[in-house]
Design brief:
The protein is of the alpha+beta class. It contains 12 helices and 19 strands. The protein has helices at 34-57, 64-79, 88-99, 126-129, 151-158, 214-224, 243-251, 297-307, 378-392, 397-410, 414-418, 421-439, and strands at residues 84-86, 103-104, 107-112, 115-121, 137-141, 144-145, 165-171, 179-184, 186-187, 193-198, 202-207, 230-234, 258-263, 271-274, 286-290, 312-315, 323-329, 335-344, 360-361. Helix 8 (297-307) links the parallel strand 15 (286-290) and strand 16. Helix 7 (243-251) packs parallel to helix 8.
């Protein structure tokens, strides 16, 4: 029977965050009746004959161990896009990945329709700086084609020593030909949560991925901004992470009911996660931003808040990854990554291969504004004159630049807002919610 350690199941893809759970392998003949046992023996006999035939007649000389490993890889790849066989090398790399820092690109990938697809580049990483986008298909890694390559093989090739070069050939929607991108690997360190303000009354929280400190950081941001009248939670290009952090995030804003449940064939793996009333921010209006790069844990958060009618979801349809994987060692050096359950939102719907549909669909882009160059508002005039005064008083341009930079780090400027149509729409909706709430 499978037993897992609570809190270690990751609700994400293969990325900088992974979960390692040690479980025992069940017996093939456990709880089998006589007819079932005969059927299994016949199937095993067929499998043995196939192995023997391949070993004897295949053009290349393969060992039994090589044949078995290929058979296992084929089996796992044909179950679903997220189950896989971790051979000695892959299992070792999995442990390195779980331990924290490693050299890589900072991109989360998955298999979609058999193609190696970028789910999301993580902000501040080499992949993000190189311009990789959600939905990009990776056709080649250096000189190796990704066709028929497993997810683990692809991730292994992309990971490597910091400061080493890697070349990806990308197929991107609406581009006439493949794009070649050269990236320098680096140590991947992610700041998972950061905050800014929109005006003086809206708190913007960007969650890059759900690591072990997300709930703590959101609580801290809310405590430090007690006068915030509304909240924007930006989950765009968030590939997922830890399930307990997704549950904890929803629990901050929902005071009762189911947050998410997971259901599989083994009853012991079935879980229902419920909200608690203590410490809940029940009244603050919320808008959540999502897109095609929002996956797994971020889909649980956005979908659950949507089902509880606790937030308005704005943006584009999410990726659709709603299954649970655990790592099952088969010996000291090899393991299986196996899908054992699916996630279900409070309404009972699944996000697997479906995703979360926003309440308000908004494509990413700039806001088109017709500017009047012949008018100068009073506030703009005062700001201009203030700058001129600072020059007279002897303040250097460097000081002004530093002040401007500091301000931009803490506040989303009007220019930034109009360069991000989804954020602008979210802010407008949130302001309407704030006005509605104040009139009650």
């Amino acid at each position: 029977m499978m037993k897992r350690k609570k809190g270690l199941i990751a609700a994400g893809f293969i990325s900088t965050f992974a979960a390692l759970t040690l479980v025992g392998a069940p017996s093939l003949f456990a709880k089998s009746d006589a007819n079932s046992t005969v059927s299994k023996l016949e199937a095993l006999s067929k499998f043995t004959r196939v192995i023997g035939t391949v070993e004897k007649y295949y053009v290349d000389d393969l060992t039994i161990n090589e044949i078995i490993n290929k058979a296992i890889k084929g089996l796992m790849a044909n179950l679903d896009a997220h189950s896989s066989f971790l051979d000695t090398k892959s299992f070792k790399e999995m442990k390195i990945q779980t331990s924290g820092e490693f050299g890589g690109l900072g991109v989360t990938v998955g298999m979609r329709d058999g193609a190696l697809t970028v789910i999301a580049p993580l902000e501040g990483t080499p992949a993000y700086r190189a311009g990789l986008k959600s939905g990009d298909i990776i056709l080649k890694i250096d000189d190796k084609s990704t066709l028929n390559m497993t997810l683990d093989e692809a991730v292994s090739l992309m990971r490597g020593k910091p400061k080493t070069k890697i070349t990806l050939t990308i197929v991107r929607k609406n581009e006439p030909k493949p794009i070649v991108v050269t990236i320098i690997r680096d140590i991947i360190k992610i700041e998972s949560v950061y905050t800014k303000k929109v005006g003086s009354d809206i708190l913007y929280i960007r969650i890059v991925s759900f690591d072990k400190k997300v709930v703590h950081d959101i609580k801290k941001a809310l405590r430090e901004n007690p006068n915030a009248k509304g909240l924007i939670i930006d989950l765009r290009n968030n590939p997922g992470g830890l399930l307990d952090q997704a549950v904890g995030t929803v629990d901050l804003f929902v005071d009762k009911g189911v947050i998410v449940s997971q259901k599989g064939r083994v009853k012991d793996e079935n879980q229902v996660y419920k909200a608690h009333s203590k410490g809940t921010y029940k009244k603050i209006p919320i808008v959540v931003l999502v897109n095609g790069g929002s996956a797994s844990a971020s889909e649980i958060v956005s979908g659950s808040l949507q089902d509880h009618r606790r937030a308005v979801i704005v943006g584009e349809k999410t990726f659709g990854k709603g299954s649970v994987q655990i790592i099952m060692p088969i010996n000291k050096s090899e393991a299986l990554r196996l899908t054992i359950a699916r996630y279900y939102l409070p309404s009972g719907r699944t996000i697997q291969a479906v995703g979360v549909t926003p309440d308000i669909n908004v494509s990413f882009g700039k806001v088109t504004v017709e500017e009047n160059h012949f008018s100068l508002k009073e506030s703009q005039l005062k700001e201009h004159l203030k700058g001129e005064l600072e020059k007279i008083d002897g303040k250097s341009e460097k000081e002004s630049e530093e002040k401007s930079t500091t301000s931009k780090e803490k506040v989303i400027t009007t220019e930034e807002l109009y360069n991000d149509n989804q954020l602008k729409e979210g802010v407008d909706i949130l302001r309407a919610l704030i006005i509605t709430q104040e009139k009650r």
